[in-house]
Design a protein that fits this description.
42% helix; 2 domains; Rossmann fold; 6-stranded parallel sheet; 411 residues; alpha/beta
Length: 411
């Protein structure tokens, strides 16, 4: 009888195999680098000066996640080194005296620096530590992860946060999912601290300062995630056609990763549906203004849903949240995704069958009072300590640094 492996297990084994191969390739490359430096009379530069706080961001779009924390640490006169993978990251023009930013390159260039860095604490929103090329440095005492969205922590690719020492969270459901994964994989318990959502606090604080959006025609924002289960991959131009038929203004804001991982699809759609008086494509780094001037959002499993509903207090239309979980951490758990219980309280579900009635769905969603109640419920579940996120994050980092350095002194 042939040995059968179900698709989920097969995907998991394939992921593990890729990790082993990736680790082998990385180790070989590092050996070659060391030999090259040795025989050239040089040496790999490893600073003897330990960085107290290092923030690593693989892309400029995460500056909104880190900026409130940097601002708070700067108030406390804490020196922070900020490494970015984007040459045009806004942090490179950061005015904060105690935040020193540097562009360290992309992919292997950045990993070469990260894998040998000497730091007490590394804070990052990038998953995959110690899975592929990004290895834990022996000279780093503590790795802390902060999510970049107010949603599932288990929708990272497999093992995304397994090898962090701590994770900053915004809801109990996230904490429980991590604990369940740790139990299944027999991992040491990470330090899990609920601090809230600093970047959403900042967005909420900006709203009363700038006021409501100027009077405008009804505007629909299509802002999906990326990947084979995302809206633009599933429906292609069909959903744009239907949106244009509503007569409303349409803004299409693809996930930034789509322009890398789905470049052909993006080029095709942008050529078929160029900017016009009714349709605009949006790629702003900061999504504050585009969310502010949109009346309703259409999305899938993107974290932007929660920004739009909970900060701007507006409804959404979402696609079927059921998708192939096999590449993700969520595949390991038998519990339903929290998102599947949250979305029906935030708006209507869009399906292949009701897409032709999208205009009616939009109109109904904008006038049905039950969604205001649903937004309040979801906010309470996924956004603890509103308004306090940056302060709590900074306080945790400072206390952790003092704890770690105290331990070093005792040793």
């Amino acid at each position: 009888m042939l040995l059968y492996i179900d698709p989920g297990t097969g995907s998991m084994l394939f992921t593990i195999l890729l990790g082993v191969i990736g680790a082998g390739i990385y180790s070989f490359r590092m050996l070659m680098i060391k030999l090259r430096y040795k025989f050239s009379g040089g040496k790999i530069e490893i600073s003897n000066s330990k960085i107290p706080f290092l923030i690593y961001s693989d892309d400029k779009r995460y500056w909104t996640v880190f900026e409130p924390i940097c601002r708070e640490l700067n108030k406390w006169k804490k020196d922070v080194v900020y490494w970015t993978g984007s040459p045009d990251d806004p942090v490179l023009n950061c005015p904060y005296e105690h935040i020193k930013a540097e562009y360290i390159g992309k992919d292997n260039r950045s990993f070469a620096r990260l894998n040998l860095v000497n730091a007490t604490i590394v804070l990052s929103t990038t998953p995959g530590l110690d899975v592929y090329q990004w290895k834990r440095s022996k000279q780093v005492d503590y790795y802390i992860h902060i999510p970049h969205a107010a949603s599932e922590i288990i929708l990272y690719r497999m093992f995304g946060i397994d090898y962090y020492d701590a994770v900053m969270l915004s809801g109990d459901y996230q904490l429980q999912d991590i604990r369940n994964l740790e139990a299944l994989r027999e991992l040491p318990a990470k330090e899990l601290v609920k601090i809230g959502i600093p970047y959403m606090d900042t967005m909420a604080n900006r709203l009363p300062q700038v006021g409501e959006a100027p009077e405008h025609e009804r505007t629909i924002l299509l802002a999906p995630s990326w990947g084979p289960s995302a809206i633009l991959s599933v429906y292609g131009g069909k959903i744009i056609d239907v949106l244009l038929k509503t007569g409303y203004q349409v803004i299409v804001r693809p996930h930034p990763q789509s322009f890398t991982s789905e470049a052909e699809l993006m080029e095709k759609l942008m050529n078929e549906y160029p900017d016009s008086e009714q349709l605009k494509w949006n790629r702003d780094t900061d999504n504050f203004d585009v969310l502010r001037r949109s009346d309703i959002l259409i999305s899938d499993f993107s974290g932007v849903i929660f920004e739009f509903c909970l900060v701007y207090d507006k409804p959404v239309i979402y696609t079927d949240p059921r998708f192939d979980l096999s590449p993700y951490d969520a595949w390991w758990l038998n519990t339903p995704l929290w998102t599947t219980s949250a979305l029906p309280r935030l708006g209507y579900q869009l399906t292949e069958e009701n897409m032709s009635d999208l205009k009616s769905l939009i109109d109904a969603c904008l006038t049905d009072p039950k969604y205001a109640k649903g937004r309040a419920e979801v906010k309470e579940e996924t956004w603890v300590y509103p308004g306090e996120g940056a302060e709590r994050a900074a306080a945790y980092l400072i206390n952790k640094y003092e704890e770690l350095t105290r331990t070093e002194e005792v040793k």
